[in-house]
Every structure is written in C-alpha cells, then in structure tokens.
Specification:
Layout: E1 13-18, H1 24-37, E2 44-47, H2 56-70, E3 74-79, H3 85-97, E4 102-106, H4 127-136, E5 142-147, H5 158-171, E6 175-178, H6 184-196, E7 203-204, E8 206-207, H7 213-223, H8 229-235, H9 241-261, E9 266-270, H10 276-282
Parallel strand pairs: 1-2, 1-9, 2-3, 3-4, 4-5, 5-6, 6-7, 8-9
Length: 291
C-alpha cells in the first residue's frame, strides 16, 4: 500500500512517532509501549534520530524491531544536517535493505550552538532537494514532509513558508505531517492556505498531548509553537503531575475529535515513547474509517 493510500477513500490513517532510547532499559520500555499502542490498530510507526544523525543506526535498529513485532510498515526520519549527498544515499540504501518502507524527509534544525542551517560541502540545502534525491533512487519509498501551521520559525513569512512546502510536494512528497499545535484554528487556516496554493496531498495533523507543563513549554519554545493562555492557566492551577496529565490529555482528545469531525485526513501522535496519553486520547475512537 502506498503511503497516501492510508488517507484515501474515507480512511483515517493513524501513526505514532518514536525516538531511539539511549539505554537498554529504555529500549525494553519502548517496545512494551509499542505493544500497547497496537491495540489502536495504527497504520505505521515513525522514528526520529539524534541531532546531526548521531543515532541513525539505532533508529534503523528500532524500526527493524518494531516491524518484526508489529508486521506494520515503518518510516525513518532523514535530515540534510551534517551529511553529504553520498552519505544520504548510503543511509537510504541501508534503510531499504533493512525493510524501511517510508521516509520522513526534513531539512533538519541547525546543529547545537548554531543559529542558522548550513549545508556541508557536497550536501543538500533544502528538504525539497532531499525529496528529489529520494525520488531519483530505485527504491520506491513513501515520503512524508513537514508542514507548519504556525509558520516555520526561520521562514520570512507565511507565504514564503507555503512556497517552500509546495516545492517539497512538487518534488514528490506523498503526505504532509504537521508540527505540533494546540489551537485547531491554526490547522484549519493552514489547510485552507494549502488548498489555495494547489497542494493536494493529504495533510495530517500532528498532536503532542501535554503530560507536563514545563516539558511542553520547553518543546514549544524550541519550535516556536504557542500554548493557548487559557490552557496554560488551567494546567497551572495545580502543581500536580496527575492534574497536568489529565488536563493536557483531555485538551488533546478534544483537539483530535474536533479535527476528525472537521475532515482531518488522519492523525499522527508524538508519543514520546510512552503509551498512556495516547491510550487515553484514543479510547473509543475508530480512525480506520470516516466518522
């Protein structure tokens, strides 16, 4: 099945994003949570890697094991950071040899300590170039790219950001997965803008349930996403982990239900290698067909 087919003909595709743990205990815990997430009949799993490609090999190890355990397609993140075109080709060949089905193609953030992205000599500058490279190879990877409902933090303006997204789609992307957001109006506005720009591939909302306010504030600060003031106020009413988990997940569930009711093509959950928040969100919710 093609990547885009999970979001066609009334299907509501569901995917979960993982990251490679640093310890053996972390790996064991991750696979336990993957087993629990299977109760919600996801279509595929994705996995990130560390800054500058530092855990690419471990990412493929994780995906190989997830594929073995679940018999589901898997997607590896891939960025342009710190890699030559030849190194990217080598990674893609290894990914193909190990059964990776899809690639999440990203330019990537500047390395720590740098304020702007710079391609290495012999490397790529933009995500659309990465998509073009993947499409030039014989292996038929499905390709997802990133979209930014609140505009990429380095973009000059929303129009420029949208032009960049269209270049990625025109280069051969199958779907768009959005960065996290906490106000659905931002997603609906972005969806309208994509349609007006002639972007027709499935647009998948990416959600990160808040389970800890301080953690959410750190994450949104890094990617320049905003937290609604009323939500922050509600989360701040008690300095209690259970309270913040309950309020944050409740907000994410309401986001999800509203998105599905208003025609979202599916859902991508940033689960941070845990299952509890996703389990609470997805309880009694069928994403496999239109609701």
């Amino acid at each position: 099945m093609k990547l885009s087919d999970y979001y066609r003909d009334g299907r509501r595709g569901l995917s979960f994003e993982l990251f490679p743990p640093k310890t053996a205990a972390g790996l064991e815990s991750l696979y336990e949570h993957v087993d629990r997430l299977m109760a919600f009949k996801p279509d595929y799993f994705t996995c990130t890697y560390g800054a500058g490609g530092s855990t690419q090999g471990l990412t493929l190890d994780v995906l190989s094991e997830v594929r073995r355990r679940t018999q589901l397609p898997v997607a590896s993140h891939l960025t342009c950071v710190g890699a030559t075109t030849e190194q990217i080709r080598q990674f893609l060949q290894e990914a193909a040899d190990r059964g990776t089905d899809f690639i999440v193609a990203l330019r990537g953030d500047p390395p720590k300590g740098e304020t702007s992205f710079r391609a290495v000599e012999g490397g790529l500058r933009y995500a659309n170039e990465l998509v073009e490279l993947i499409r030039s190879l014989p292996h038929p990877f499905g390709i997802a790219v990133a979209g930014y409902p609140e505009v990429h933090q380095e973009a000059v303006d929303a129009a420029t950001d949208l032009d960049n997204l269209k270049r990625k789609v025109d280069a051969g992307a199958d779907i768009i997965i959005t960065q996290l957001f906490y106000d659905n109006d931002d997603f609906y506005r972005f969806r309208d803008q994509c349609q007006q720009a002639g972007i027709e591939v499935p647009l998948i909302p990416g959600l990160l349930p808040i389970t800890n306010l301080a953690q959410a504030q750190r994450i949104t600060a890094m990617c320049k996403a905003k937290l609604p003031p009323k939500l922050v106020q509600r989360l701040s009413e008690r300095d209690d982990a259970t309270w913040q988990f309950d309020i944050g997940v409740q907000h994410a569930r309401q986001q999800m239900l509203d998105l599905l009711e208003n025609g979202a093509a599916g859902l991508h959950l940033y689960v941070l290698n845990k299952s509890q928040a996703a389990e609470r969100m997805l309880q009694d919710c069928e994403l496999g067909s239109a609701v």
